[in-house]
Design goal:
It is a single chain. The protein has two domains: 185 residues, inorganic pyrophosphatase (n-terminal core) (Alpha-Beta Complex); 115 residues, Diaminopimelate Epimerase, Chain A, domain 1, CATH 3.10.310.30. It contains ten helices and twelve strands. β8, α8 and β9 form a beta-alpha-beta unit. The radius of gyration is 19 Å and the shape is globular.
């Protein structure tokens, strides 16, 4: 349920500072852009902040160029989307004004003056859709495109178990409001560069199966060899999950001091609980963490953690 304090805050304040998490995905970006557009249709002013640049993959989103990696001046209320701690958004807790959290992750942090956290929501985009409707805002084609993308990305374009009848009803309304499923699908899944495709081939060559766990990795050298960047690995963690006998896919990406690990699972396997063991978090079927170790040790640590949860 949408907190009444949030509706009251939006009615009272004139300007808002909207931020989302580092390494933003489609749900983070689409939700933020749609909320910004909705608030501005009510005569509000908004500033969109993202510490990291917007991946080229999402340059089709209407308004993506409005994101800035420079903090806006003033003390406008902060609305942080698709994460529930300031550090995850590249912000310092001590310097923040009055704050609102809108998120659907299962791993919850104790941050926010107003906290609307719904782990049952398939996407933050679904929550923002409900908020926009509650505000009486007419959903424009640009809002619809952003919201449809947010929902599509976090439901695997309606393939994951979090796709329910409400997701499909809302998505149908967004199509009626101007979202084009064909255009969005091509932008998300059929607009790869040659380098990105070669990188995927290299990553799949690293795949190692341990029991029902599929482990793959990418190194900085592989990025250099294919002329790609970390943003080109979006969705790579999902590919091993296509193998029928695997229940967990673990994708390791080399970063300063170790590895960033993206976990994906099927069914009732809760990778959020595994990620929490390494001070990470996420959802039941999609989570992540960072680990400071060499690849061999990091892999062994993961396998041990998975076994301990069974």
């Amino acid at each position: 349920m949408i907190p009444g304090e949030l509706i009251a805050l939006i009615g009272k304040e004139k300007t808002f500072f909207i931020a989302t998490h580092i390494n933003p995905d489609g749900d983070a970006l689409g939700s933020s852009l749609a909320l910004s557009l909705a608030l501005e249709s009510l005569g509000k002013e908004t500033a969109l902040y993202g510490r990291d640049h917007i991946p080229e993959l999402y340059h089709f989103l209407p308004g993506h160029e409005r994101f800035s990696n420079v903090l806006p001046p003033g003390r406008s209320p902060l609305i942080i989307l698709d994460c529930n701690e300031p550090e995850r958004a590249g912000l310092s807790d001590g310097s923040l004004p009055y704050s609102v959290v809108i998120d659907h992750h299962e791993t919850v942090r104790d941050f926010g003056d107003i906290r609307w956290i719904d782990p049952a929501a398939p996407a933050t985009g679904m929550m923002v859709y409900s908020l926009i409707k509650s505000l009486g805002v007419r959903i424009t084609a640009d809002m619809a495109t952003n919201l449809y993308t947010a929902i599509a990305v976090d439901t695997g374009t309606f393939r994951y178990s979090n796709t329910d009848s409400e997701v499909l009803r809302v998505s149908a309304e967004l199509v009626d409001s101007g979202a084009d499923p064909g255009v969005i699908s091509v932008a998300l899944y059929e607009s790869w560069s040659d380098g990105r495709f070669r990188l995927l081939l290299r990553v799949l060559d690293t795949l190692e199966v341990v029991g029902d766990i599929g482990i793959s990795f990418v190194t900085r050298a592989m990025f250099a060899e294919t002329g790609t960047t970390p943003e080109d690995t979006e969705h790579f963690s999902n590919f091993p999950r296509m193998m029928k006998r695997l229940t967990i896919s673990a994708f390791f990406r080399e970063v300063d001091g170790g590895w960033k690990v993206s976990l994906r699972s099927r069914g009732e396997v809760d990778v959020a609980r595994i990620a929490e063991m390494f001070r990470g978090g996420g959802h039941r079927n999609a989570a992540g963490y960072k680990v400071a170790a060499d690849m061999k040790t990091a892999k062994e640590m993961l396998i041990k953690a998975v076994m301990s949860r069974r």
